[in-house]
Amino acid sequence: MRNLGHDGLANEKALIHIHPNVLFLATTPQAAKQEVTPTIPDDLPKDINQDKVELALQYVKDIVVNGMGMDVTIELKDTDDGIFIAIYGDDNLGTIIGRRGETLDAIQYLTGLATNRLEGDYLRVTVDCGDYRLKRQQNLIEMTQRMANQVLETNVTRTLDPMTPAARRLV
Predict the structure, then answer these.
(1) What is the dihedral of CA 16, 19, 20, 22, to 10 degrees?
(2) Would the pTM of this model clear 0.70, i.e. be above it?
């Protein structure tokens, strides 16, 4: 266990760098000064608010690149109900994903909040890292099929572990 100072930080100084609509935490002055320029593909539908897309990209880059110090590639894709931000890289992507995807879920949640503060229609933002969400979806489907087969064979009810709302919708 590390000793925390009165500000809650363990022997490190943190800088909070504030853009007009973006807030990120950096642990070094160099990370706080690093500028990241988002790029938006030209093939996005016209009905999507470009300012919100730009803010979402900038927010994810600020968290992952500046805040976490990761060397990653961030791609943007259009989906039926919003945008999909995919994070790829050679660094330890497990840091971005977190335990059972909790860090990735938090990044997605915060990005959605920051993005939808702007005026306009709601924009659903999905953030994935190293195809974690696709792999998790496949594992959930396989697990539920196995458990359903066991219930049919044994006639004994089974209880699933607690799941996020998104995982429950999948099942």
Answers:
(1) -80
(2) no
